[in-house]
Description:
Layout: H1 6-11, H2 13-16, H3 38-48, H4 57-72, E1 76-89, E2 93-99, E3 103-105, E4 107-109, E5 121-128, H5 131-135, E6 146-149, H6 162-165, H7 167-170, H8 172-178, E7 183-187, E8 212-215, H9 217-228, E9 233-239, E10 242-256, E11 266-271, H10 281-297, E12 308-313, H11 321-329, E13 337-340, E14 348-353, H12 360-370, E15 376-377, H13 389-395, E16 399-404, H14 409-412, H15 425-442
Parallel strand pairs: 5-6, 6-7, 7-8, 11-12, 11-13, 13-16, 14-15
Antiparallel strand pairs: 1-10, 2-3, 2-9, 4-8, 5-9, 10-12, 14-16
Helix pairs in contact: 3-10, 10-15, 11-13, 12-15
Amino acid sequence: MRTVTLALAASALVLAAPATATPKKGASPAATMPDPSAWAILEALTTEIGPRIAGSDREAAAREWAVARLAALGFSNPRIEPFTLRGFVRGAEHARITAPYPQNVAVTALGYSVPTPDGGLESELVYFPTLDALKAAPDGSLKGKIAFIDHAMKANQDGSGYGPFGNVRRVGPRIASQKGALAVVIRSAGTDMHRNPHTGGTQFGDATPIPAAAVSLPDAEQIARIASRGKPMRLAITLTGHPQDNMTSGNVIAELPGSDPKLPPVLVACHLDSWDLGTGTIDDGAGCAIVTAAALRAQAGGKPLRTIRVLWAGSEEIGVFGGAAYGKAHAAEPHSLAMESDTGADRVYGLRTSFAKTNPALRDRLVAALAPLGIVDYGAGVEGGADIGAIALAQKLPVIDLIQDATRYFDLHHTPDDTLDKVDPQQLEQNVAAWTAALRIVANEAGSLSGAN
Length: 453
């Protein structure tokens, strides 16, 4: 397991924080610390690194940047734990309806799509209004054709529509392949009406991989209108992106030591990688900024009892590889509790705890601390997100979920619009305040956090 040392981190600090002035002789170490606010962390990450697709050189640069930044902010032993994965390399991508009404459509490849033949392909486009309609198609009925899968995802505060409607992207291409399709195009899994397609990963399982892409929502509605006229449709599409084996990724880990080293650490997580169409601001640079700023702020007034460990996971987007790698590498190391931020930067409105019934006293303290921020208790029903799920499941960890407003999250998610200007600094700060309040309670709790003996 490779570890990046603090010496390396310090040598990289000039690159990590160029806005920090050269300290005057005799200045205190604190004078050299970069701004610890969530906004400053997020602005620097998205400006100095930008898009960070899994396995790429930019994701690698982000890991080195993160180690340097965390060291400069005062975290102990920031390090990289590398792993390899099968990634995806984006290429050229364009599509055009050639009949009955010729026009271009805005398209992007899905992760793990295979390329079209040289020069692209053109074939009949078969419209399916839902994923269930595709499932009901006879086997072999799509031989030599391109499938188009529509859906009806709408914006809502808790983002729950992404589960069922996101399956159009997650499993739709596999089903289309099994029905014999040459290629598959989906309505983007999103809620905006901008002409920006949403990318994201798909999995073919034991089906033959085929070219797979998403069109923007306005283009999807145009396709639906054309289909309603009953005339045969044809689509020409070119995708040159491709999967690639043996790419390097990794997790970045660091700690703020607690005053009682015998107590297992509290794990706070985000994912450092992003899709490549935007700058990975809301997904999930904001999460990394929130958990890091809150961990630092929780130290105000002295060390808490428990160590707070930050995990900036790698390669979440393409297949949750970072969370799985962390769970495997740290399976034998006790943890006390896990939390994750990965739904953007809009305000926290709800609290869920896995220990609502087993440790109601701790839950009640959290409820009381978060109430002044307008956050209400939503009870139990949380098992952990993508980056903490493996370790939380393996160790049956107590989990806290600070529920963010996702009303506009899927307008931006996986699109070119995922950029810094979409973040409201006041809502970002409310996230940090909520996380800080929660961390101050759980990191200073000497007893079992789950309430179990």
